[in-house]
Fold Protein-glutamine gamma-glutamyltransferase K.
Amino acid sequence: MCPCCCKHPNATSYDVTDKVEFTKLPTPAAIVDPPKPKPENGEAKETDGNDTYFKLCENMTLSLASNLIFTPLLLEGKLSVCSVDLLSSKAGQNRQEHHTDLYHGDELILRRGQTFQIEVELNRPFSTDTDKLYLELKTDSFKSNRWTHVIIPLVKHLEDERWEAKIVEQNGNKIKLSINSPANAVIGLYELTVTTSSLKGDATTTYTSSKNIVMLFNPWCEEDSVFLDNEEERKEYVLNDTGRIYYGTEKQIGARTWNFGQFHEGILEACLFIMEKSEMPPSGRGDPVNVVRVISAMINAQDDYGVLVGNWSGDYSDGVSPTAWSSSVEILRKYHSTNGTPVSYGQCWVFSGITTTVLRCLGIPSRSVTNFQSAHDTDVSLTTDVYLNENLEPIDYLNRDSVWNFHVWNDCWMARPDLPPGNGGWQAVDATPQETSQGTFRCGPASVNAIRSGHVYLKHDTPFVFAEVNSDKIYWQRNLDGTFKQIYSEKKAVGHCISTKAVGSDKRADITSLYKHEEGTEEERIAVETASRYGSKPDVYSTPVAEDVSVEVKVDGEGPRVGADAQLKILVKNLSSQPRQATIHSQVAVMYYTGVLKGTIKKEQMPVELSPNEEKTIDWVLTYQQYQSQLVDQAAFMLTLCGRVTETKQVLANQTTFRLRTPDITITPIGDAVVGKEMAAKITFTNPLPSTLKGVVFRVEGLGLQEGHEVVVGDVGAHSKVTLTEHFIPSQPGPRKLVASLDCEQLSQVHGVADIVVLEQ
């Protein structure tokens, strides 16, 4: 058989007998086997049956005429891949252009809707005339038989919004490919395979890269539904790995630093693990609405073995107190390393901090949001209902609605093509397990614009969030026949000082106006009444109540401190031209920040006589001795005032929450902050109580400064001062934050932060 009919498997060039040239022959080259591709960073495979074609010439001896030269006739060796370089270095073009250079490790981490490059080394030069090449991507969940399979063809010209690849550079056996991904691509982990063959489709080989590709949402891409058209906001809501979470009461707003750590080692892997554990079909992972809804369920462990166990009992002996956490990193890494064992314990700010970490890590702009005086509506009435007996005393078993001192959830940014126009932008999502949504403890995403307008019929869970920020507090009194009548409506009771960290600074930004119109305006009343028509008590606003006497509570300055007497002022105003008399009943109860009362610790009655247009101030005091043994998490109280005006029978009602301020931890850096050079920080704390703190533990952490760890101090005497010195070596340049928190039975929400600018070595 002549060589023109069959490729010889062992020859580097081929001779033919139908062309004769009289020339001096070179020395014949030795016939050797070409080297097979080595799986340097992957695996090369041949498909079944390919060897048959090449074995036709085995065991043949070719007699070559000494005066003939045989020239090639398009019979090159079979094309195969030797290696694939994903160009995944943090300092490389891909990671820099895709804003993923901050993630730990050298994986190829990409954002969808944006071009990226890879290099492929072949066993010989690629020819467009004879060779065919295409790429395949499979989501990592293909191992569970639920996966997405993408074929990426080789084209001459790239077009947007589709998977395509183009050769942009060829140098010998190496080619560089530029690859497009659509802006709605499924996010997650992909396995890459390169397939080569002849144009006829035979002689096929495949090569699977040993490194995977991670695809994320892309807030920099206009076609992506999470696109955010402001670079400073993208830096804050996607790239900033630290933040501030607010707590306390509207009159005494506290703030603590939280390390989100979305770029920290192991966090991306943990976030992808959460996605896999949710068993969300890969086909739904391209839609941020679906992803956020799943994440809000998976962050809590209530019904799906999610990340964090909620605990409001005050007993955290078999876990970590919620107030002791100051970072998402330890929680997420622990959940991942234990193959999905829920971590103990968390409350709303911890759920929110973790949600911010996961969403930012996946590429969805997000922020932690605190609502002060946050209502918890349990019966979808869209009102916060307070039931009183015939003597104006609370009926505890009926009062299931509550108002939390504060509640922390999240905003995330995305378009909402599933809703009418105008409802995109910020969406509220809440991972704290409060009420079920479609059978699962989750909440959102709910359009903030829809909440503001009272359009509670729009998904997801808009009625619940509306009630949290803008429900009226309705007081009902029981009649002698057992029925109830509405006796008072408090229209400004909930949804105050809605707060988040400001863009580019550690200041607090008040975003109440995004969630509701200004209190008392016609727009705000229309929104409330619109929402109520879709609730379980649509006729609640049919009868207005006249008012000419008002009562309110004021807190001076920053408010009372733990360890001292709490002093408040009760202001009673007569707005009429006639004298008024009333008896005000007051009671104060220790309260968990969720609005659940532990118990009443003080009751009293205050007779009030008011001249026409008079304003009277009543001093109210709760002594340290009265509350010292009753404190719970957040050191919070609720003061309830109720009364009736003798002349008009008008009902007076007011509920005010206040907290006792805790001392800060002071952190003082010592020495120069330089990468690779040891420095120190002095941490000091003074016990504010006239009693001993038992079992004090400090937690210290700084992203790029040192790993989080515990420092066991033990007992701290009354009014005693504790000083610690931490030694560490900064590993990352730029502005960093060293955070410390204190955990003990008697005090919570004790923390401190130091800003440290680390220089390059």
Summary: The chain has twelve helices and 40 strands. The first strand starts at residue 42 and ends at 46. Residues 248 and 254 are 5 Å apart (CA to CA). Residues 348-362 form the longest helix (15 residues).
